[in-house]
Design a protein that fits this description.
Elements (H helix, E strand, L loop, with lengths): L9 H12 L2 H15 L8 E5 L5 H8 L4 E6 L2 H13 L6 E5 L5 H4 L5 E7 L8 H8 L3 E12 L9 H13 L2 H16 L7 H14 L4 H10 L8 H10 L2 E7 L4 E8 L1
Parallel strand pairs: 1-2, 1-4, 2-3, 4-5
Antiparallel strand pairs: 5-7, 6-7
Length: 267
């Protein structure tokens, strides 16, 4: 039996998302979600560090929110290229820098400057060393800086369990093109439609909600959920203990979805 690759092709998925779905509406939705969660009116005068920039949409949202400096990096070169493409859409501003790098690469991180906003949404649990990746985010917080991260929530995954989903992800990554489409149908039929075809009408509304929440797309997130490997889940109690060790206060914790969103501030 073949083994899953060490990393899912996140960048290809995000590149496809931008090519199929990019719009100024999505950028504005992402901008509003970002500012609402940070509890800020804008990012004027603030620096923004995007760890695992993916599609680049949220870096662009930070630019639209008025960030004075943006530094975006990703392990996946396809994500870097997609983010660079978005930067090109807005005239390649010099205060937006994009490069390839890993939050686990200490040598690379030596050249990364601290920021007022450190942002990493749905990324750190895919590094293969989630707690180390989280530790490495903390030194980049400026005084009174905000750390905004989203982590897959262990506590919400009761039936099925986190272990069930980890097994599914391994099987998805071993599958060929046809096998992956079959897994996607299986997931949508069982967990979105609940094995009832008439729920397809509700699915249309759900797809619209993706655009209205963070500017994302339904199918892109299905592929990301099934394919995302490596993968770890975080228990809320463990995240709280981690924050205490790093002298971070949890300002906001939003639960109820696969990802729990956390906003930390230095105590």
């Amino acid at each position: 039996m073949t083994q899953p690759s060490s990393h899912f092709e996140f960048g290809k998925n995000w590149s496809d998302f931008i090519k199929r779905n990019f719009s100024e509406e999505r950028v504005d939705v992402s901008r509003r979600h970002l500012l609402d969660f940070l509890q800020l009116q804008d990012l004027k005068g603030k620096s923004f560090l995007d760890i695992g920039c993916g599609s680049g949409l949220h870096s662009l949202a930070a630019l639209r929110a008025g960030a004075a400096r943006i530094f975006s990096f990703d392990y996946d070169m396809d994500s870097v290229k997609t983010t660079q493409m978005l930067r090109g859409f807005v005239g390649n501003p010099q205060y937006w820098e994009i490069t390839q790098g890993s939050i686990l690469d200490k040598e690379f991180l030596r050249n990364v400057e601290p920021a007022d906003i450190v942002y990493s949404w749905g990324v750190l649990h895919h590094t293969g060393s989630m707690w180390e990746a989280m530790d490495n985010c903390v030194p980049f917080l400026k005084e009174n800086g905000l750390l905004y991260i989203a982590l897959y929530d262990y506590d919400i995954q009761v039936n099925p369990t986190p272990e069930f989903w980890l097994d599914v992800k391994k099987k998805y990554n071993r599958a060929n093109w046809i096998g992956r489409r079959a897994w996607e149908f299986w997931y949508i039929w069982n967990f979105i439609l609940k094995k009832k075809w008439w729920n397809s009408f509700a699915l249309l509304g759900k797809k619209g909600n993706y655009t209205r929440s963070r500017g994302m797309a339904f199918y892109t997130d299905v592929v990301d959920w099934l394919g995302g490997w490596p993968m770890e889940f975080a228990k809320r109690a463990d995240v709280k203990a981690w924050a205490e060790r790093h002298q971070l206060a949890i300002r906001i914790m939003t639960t109820g979805a696969a990802n729990t969103e956390y906003l930390f501030v230095k105590k």
